[in-house]
Amino acid sequence: MKIIPVLCALFFLLTASLYSQEYDETYIIARGCRNVEGNMELMNCFSKQVSNLFNRSKNKRLISELNPGINKFNLTFEVQYDKTIELTHLNSLNPSLKKEFERTLNKMKILEPAMQKGEAITVALHVPITIGTKATGVYGYHKMSQITDKNDYPGDEKIFPRIDISCINEEGKKDFKRSSDYLLNFLFNTINPDQIDSLLKPGMNLFEIKINYNQNDELTKITSLSSNEKLNTIFEENIAKVFQESEFLSPRKDDIAYAGELMFYVFYMKN
């Protein structure tokens, strides 16, 4: 499997207000950023160093754990006050993959931790990463896949369920579209393409999965609508695993919750 260049965009969710230029707050200083001045400049430099880290990665064990095609990950890691790095969340249930991400992150050299009022502090960072590999056989097609919601709210305004994800904890960042992308990426990361290869037809394959929920924040039923019982079992079991890693909240308006259903439209390409 040949790796294609990594696309890495970073969004930082800090445990302290390190965006400011206050004299008593200093951002993390990583190797390559020693002579950079200003917290915003240090943050941009750190972002570049993380991006370069994954672009330069020759970790064959990491590459061997990736699915064909596009792989989208959401990492949360902490740069500790003692300059160590700890991966705290990865939207994949593959323990080997988590280990290889940890191995890659630990190659980063932290010269100085974040400082606040003269004391070293721990900073949490959220990093979405996209890695592409040569696609042969079956791979998830992210571009066309989507999640829709239909609920019992009678008003004209559109309201949506909320998916509380541990690595997306900044106010205003939990919109339905972003949560949908996260869940789809997690599902594609969880299903092994080799497991479904023989069950798909050549070309594009569309699958619909219906998820019913009640007004008590509970998923009541997951139903894959494929005509293949083996595929139905695979999708239903893996979607259940994905939701176990997050907290589902039914849509609300004026403190009243509503029941409804989510529809997963999942596309797979088989070459």
What does this molecule look like?
- Strand 13 and strand 14 form a beta hairpin.
- Strands 10, 11, 13, 14 and 18 form a five-stranded antiparallel beta sheet that branches. Strands 1-9-4-5 form a four-stranded antiparallel beta sheet.
- Helix 4 packs across helix 6.
- It has two domains: 131 residues, no CATH class; 133 residues, no CATH class.
- The chain is α+β, with helices and mostly antiparallel strands and 271 residues long.
- It comes from Psychroflexus aurantiacus.
- Keywords: Signal.
- This is TonB protein C-terminal.
The run of helices and strands is EEEHHEEHEEEEEEEHHEEHEEEE
Number of strands: 18
Radius of gyration: 21 Å
What is the 3D shape? globular
> Helicity range of the residues?
25-40%
Average pLDDT number: 87
* Main pleated-sheet profile: 5 strands, antiparallel
Helix/strand structural class: alpha+beta
* Overall tally of structural domains: 2
User: For this entry, what is the oligomeric state of its chains?
Assistant: single chain
Helical stretch tally: 6
Query: Into which percentage range does the β-strand content fall?
Result: 25-35%
Uncertain runs with pLDDT below 50, 5 residues or more? 1-21, 169-173
Distance between the termini: 15 Å
Protein name: TonB protein C-terminal
Keywords: Signal
Signal peptide: 1-22
